[in-house]
# Entry
Amino acid sequence: MELDVNGQMRTFDAQPEMPLLWVLRDLLRMTGTKFGCGMALCGACTVHVDGQPVRSCITRVSTLAGKKVTTIEAMAEDSIGKRVQAAWLELGVPQCGYCQAGQIMSATSLIRQNPRPQDADIDKAMSGNICRCGTYPRIRAAIKRAADNAGSAG
Amino acid sequence: MANARLSRRDFLKTSGSLVVAFSFGPLLETAGRAAMADGAALKAVSLDQVDSFLSIGVDGTVTCYSGKVDLGTGVRTALTQIVADELTVALDKVRLIEGDTLLTPDQGPTYGSLAIQVGGMQIRQAAATARAALMSEAAKRWQVAPGELTTADGAVRTKSGARRISFGELVGGKEFSLSLDTGAPLLDPAQYRFVGRSISRLDIPGKVSGEFTYMQDFRVPGMLHARVVRPLAIGAQLASVDESSVSGIPGLVKVVRDGNFLAVVARTEWGAIRAAQQLKASWSDWSGLPDESRLWEHVRATRIVKNDITSNVGRTEQALPRAAKRLSATYDFAIHTHGSIGPSCAVAEFRDGKLTSWSASQATHNLRKQLASMLSLPEDQVRAIYVEGAGCYGRNGHEDAAADAALLARAVGQPVRVQWMRADEHGWDPKGPPTLIDLEAGLDTAGRVVAWHSQFYVPAGAAGTVPLVTAQLASLPHETGMSPGNIINDTALPYAFPNVLTVAHRLADTPLRPSWIRTPGRMQNTFANEAFLDELAIAAKTDPFEFRVRYLDDPRGIELLKRLQAFAKWQGRTSSKHSGGDTVTGRGVAYVKYELYRTYVGAVATVEVNRTTGAIRVKHFAVVQDCGQIINPDGVKNQIEGNVLQTVSRTLKEQVTFDRSRVTSVDWASYPILTFPEIPDVDIALIDRPTEKPWGAGEPSAAVVPAAISNAVCDAVGVRLRSVPFLPQKVLAALKSV
# Structure
């Protein structure tokens, strides 16, 4: 099986029903994307498929032929992703950090679609990404910081 | 181990010098992955030795060995700040090894907000001892009085600056062989360069880039993947297993059955998941849980094994009947689960009969004892190593996953990784037990409290070790008692009423395996105490700040409340100013002196209550905290923000549900937690006391959240919520009853 992950064609041996999450984590050893619930209820496994946020834990790898998968490991090279990551560092967002890859992927997608998200936009776009440590206020602030930085830069 | 240690110490004695050559280099390089050496103690780990906590390499790198671990709270950074300051070295010269039973001292589990307060202070004292020894060694070399020397930037130098020798040159790669000196002079806090500053957390870059290796990401060579197949009912017996039901799964290695413990092992993680889903097994019926709809009747009817009188002042039983006005109320607090975003995970490997266990356990030293006991191994044949996992807020499923992995690694003869699925975690982790509280108090005609009587119905037991579910299922040796945590803390009051009687009725049983979850007992008890106090203040027609301060004789507590009053711009209750309308705003205050001897916290909650839907929206929290010396102000704020949000979630939304056989709240739909649209703003003011001891910051602020919300709701709509969670239907029922 072949898949475009972060701009590289990767080859692996997987059953077609295997969700993308375990292809990434177990077969490709890209563990930045996290397992949280396996039911698309927590957002920890969020990646981008053709630029759209999807939950990799319920996305069968057989549905991804010809599509581009982007993960947290590629965000440093993404024009918006790197600003999101920089804002996360500036504001010291993570506590345990386990949900943060998913948060960053959802936030990057949000800013790409809406360069100036307001609180209501953030609530809507991020409500599927849960955080048990309670870092939501810092995530909100960091999204605004990243959006500001993206705006001023371009 | 003791013998090996003794023989080396004998050698040290005969060597006659402060330090002897003994390299830690190769050990450290492989510390994370090394198999155990042959029963030998490679380094000191006792609490009374400097070498247990610290070593200095030839390049001046300081390695700190901490029994307390970073559970995602920032402790790693804070401990690094403490060591760097006390040894006067740069921050990037310090590295930390955490929670490895072979290398780190047993400083107790990382719980109870003690990592800095206890663990950090042991490490600080070891560093102070080391610093004094370094100066003394240099003084001997230079034939000068130690008083002429000082240290800075990883070197000893004369106060004149004429001579200088780096720590690496002085002792690099050698042991101190020194007892920890509890009298070794500490640096004047005015000289600290890092303590008291918001140093950026060392772990955050890796957590933002995705490169950080969590327990859930950790692998060892030759590792297999496993899933445990849970019984359909908690006490069900495994009748039969049809292994042919999984024979077609690619990469399946083995179906492992040991009593009622059933698991599948496969070469890939997906193979293990598929096999666990497909495996056909039949279980006996079991329905030993109580009726959830009558939980509180069940708790009240449970046999009491002892009564802990946690405070007894005056003659409460005589004073209460004579009070001009008497109030009584019953409070309850639901069963909660931990809800870490990453389910528990562990890896285990047997080599030459010795077990190495990697897990995110908050208590690797206790885990080692439990694994050894379960597998009938000598303790020194087990090494338990901490690898940080998803947030740990108490004793969740990590130890059980470690036991699963150990049992399976032994069964298949290869390293095994066990990752719990979400339903395993929600269904089988140990729970925060249900808490039921009866309160009664009396006021005199002037509205003064004359007596207070409270009774708490909580499981027996303390912190200890929670029985391993693996051992229970496989009928292997395990503890039989309950360990719910020290849940009778904060049953007694910080207020000086003339007559007070507080009693904890310790129950023989509780519906689900109990453990401690962040702020165990202190949260439930403070909820009842501070909400009932608000009931008294209302009955006395007194401002709740004024009412509290009236009964405090503690200057730090009074100062905290005054600061909070100003910080929150408190202008009295808002209830009198309400007009009509569906959505009403209210404010409430709550206060705690944690465990009555440490961290002070007060909070004012601002809430909106919708009278039509019964929904509560927590809009804002103002928090003031005094935890003594602050190591990292932003780290403390981070913990307070997290406490407030997590506890708003617990207070408004969370309760474990169950039928007669099993937990039924096994995912995020049936056990919802707070999401983005529901979060409050949090403003925090810290009272820093640089010359005081540091107290805990990870838990205390959670204690005040439920009562502050209850008090604010009462201010808004005039009804008292006494049952956590404050679900809309409870609010509507309360509104209808007035």
